[in-house]
Amino acid sequence: MSKVDEYTGNGMIVVSDGEVWAVDDSGLPDVIGEIGRVELSIEMPENLIGIYRVEHIMLFDEDDEELYDDQTLVDNTEYHSERALVKAVAKKYGISEDIITVL
User: What is the model's pTM?
Assistant: First the structure.
């Protein structure tokens, strides 16, 4: 169970600037944790040679506890290299590429 799963508020989850926040209906953010490490699983469809897609992303905090199982990037967006995909994930989260581990 991730830290986000333990969040009991009725707001939405936002990942930005290297942190995971819960934003309630009043618009006030509550920081759940800082991203310390990212595990990224990449899908390479057999019928689409040279295409890379996000298969799964798990964010961990600085204590290496599961922070957030982010399904928002698991879509059909296509990248033409593993490097381009890693770069896009780092930019989206506002983190260094160095903390992303490709599984």
Answer: 0.89
